[in-house]
Amino acid sequence: xxxxxxxxxxxxxxxxxxxxxxxxxxxxxxxxxxxxxxxxxxxxxxxxxxxxxxxxxxxxxxxxxxxxxxxxxxxxxxxxxxxxxxxxxxxxxxxxxxxxxxxxxxxxxxxxxxxxxxxxxxxx
Length: 124
Description:
Layout: E1 3-7, H1 11-23, E2 27-31, H2 34-44, E3 48-52, H3 60-68, E4 78-82, H4 87-96, E5 100-103, H5 108-121
Helix pairs in contact: 2-3
């Protein structure tokens, strides 16, 4: 069973995403802010991380940079989730080295396809 960490400050999105992934057979942990997400990522070592960009405590870019700087978490595939569909935001995330990008609101099929593609390309 693949482990997914969802870091998202919006409770409804976090809970809905968790439910969707659990129904698809993933084991899911959630965090409501960037700092909690960083701690869970280091402790739990998920197979993939879904992370919002605009969050309290530490934004998604800060979370991404911190995880990529640690050998134990550097290779975990990372997908940005954001309500901001501007090209500049997407380019920033992908330039940093993210494996994927999903714009909110997203459909279940879009999320699952992106998640599957990123796990496959990471050799999971």
